[in-house]
Amino acid sequence: MQRCGFEERLRGGTFTLLAPSDEAFLKIPPSRLEKMFNDPAACTAMLENHVIPHVMCLPVITEEFKAKSIGPQRVGFDCDPDKGHVVEGHRVRDGEGEFLLGGNGVVYVLDDVLIPDRGEDPNAFVYHNA
Q: Which has the closest alpha carbon to 87: 30, 24, 1, 37?
């Protein structure tokens, strides 16, 4: 967030942050991660799609639901019988301490990083595992 100057965008308002765990970032090859962090557009696109501009209560989601991120995309949420709550098919941790309530929102921990593949169209995103 600091490298991309993203912190200012989270001042004011309420948010749901989809925060990948440390282990999620370790799944990404270091060279790919460094390349993404050194490309401001790629870094911003990744961060935007981990932030929903309002508070979401995941336990009430029982079927597919799309929420607009602060980026150009809508992010898919669902309740999978085997994985529990998922975001774009990636598991949301649901144990004790796996979410945080803050003064301006909530943070949920993901097992994977949602990496947008900008391809040829910067507004087209395809989510995939690292």
A: 24
